[in-house]
Description:
The protein is α/β, with parallel strands linked by helices and about 400 residues long. About 30% of the residues lie in helices and about 25% in strands. It has helices spanning about 5-10, 35-45, 65, 80-85, 90-110, 130-145, 180-195, 245, 265-270, 310-320, 365-380, and strands at about 25-30, 50-55, 70, 125, 150-155, 170-175, 180, 200, 210, 215-220, 225-230, 250-260, 275-280, 285-290, 295-300, 330-340, 350, 355-360. The strands form three sheets. Strands 1, 2, 8, 9, 10, 11, 17 and 18 form an eight-stranded mixed sheet that branches. A hairpin with a 2-residue loop joins strand 10 (about 215-220) and strand 11 (about 225-230).
Amino acid sequence: MKNISYWLDTAPAPPQLTPGPLPSKCDVAVIGGGFTGLMVALELARDGRAVRVFDQGRVAGGASSRNAGQTLAGLKLSPHALIKKFAPARAVELYRATLDAIAFTESFVAREHIDCDLYRHGALWCAYSARHHDGLAATRDLLASTFKHETKLVSRADLGAELGSDYYYGGLIDPLSAGLHPGKLVMGLLERAADAGVGIHENTPVGSAQRTPRGFTLKTPAGTIEAAQVAVATNGYTPEPLSWFRRRVIPIGSYILVTEPLGEACARSILPHGRMAFDTKEFLYYFRLTPDDRLLFGGRTSFARIEDDEACRSLAGSMREVFPQLEGRAVDYSWSGNVGFTFDQLPHIGEHEGMHFAMGYCGHGVANSLYFGHHLAKLMCGQASTLPF
């Protein structure tokens, strides 16, 4: 078994990064080399800015390559929770932005010719109990009446057409969600940023970022650099020197395993329509098929952080409880990563003491991180943004 991300192991090799010596100045310093940071860097570089990206580890080594590739409609807060927290018009605006994010991602991938196995086969929200199924029925009605988003309720009797498991009490199908290969996407984004002239510095943590009359001075192991603007895109991997942001993003461990290739017949018996799937439990499971007919199965295994091998054993047991037909099937990959949560369970974008930022996707970051990066670049260019966060 490989204790690495399946997505990175099956993605194209990254481009050769040769940023050269650190210059004394740049227009924009981006802290964090994942989806958000690379999108900001790409768009600002194409706007003519001199951009440097600094990552404390390997670029794309965080959530951008450790997620499940589920590109989902909605937010961590349910539609009912959004309505309870905000006025209906505001709740709808927030929710609809996530649909715009999926459309933006689809358009970006097509425009940039990034082959990342993106497809819109929809998502299946699985009810863990009969009461949860009643809740999904209410969600369907609310999405249709208030959010103008049509979904389909599936009874327990009919669930076999969607899922090869008796574990759940029915489900809700969202037709607009998508799936993709995040490793291929982030490598494509990295290649295009490098081609646009972005200087990318791996294993180069920013030790401090001090505000100056001309912008900011950043201290790194490679030297000191002055930047007119700074973008913080560190999400669930925010380091201690960025203390204001670190106190506002809660890193929560999530664990993923990927089986051996199952063959098309077995894979399609599990998820006949290839939908992205997740359930209604507090410690939810999420699962999907990979492009080569493996099952990816993920979830949180405890409130506390535990060792990856222990988490893998626990998660493998859970997977076989949901899908008994996988008994005896090998697990080929297992890894973990941080999900960046916020106290209000919403992502945030904006500016703090001159530093621009976007983060806190709460497990819904695949499309939103790209979309937020796009809007953050607009804000840093002094343009208005329609993003309602």
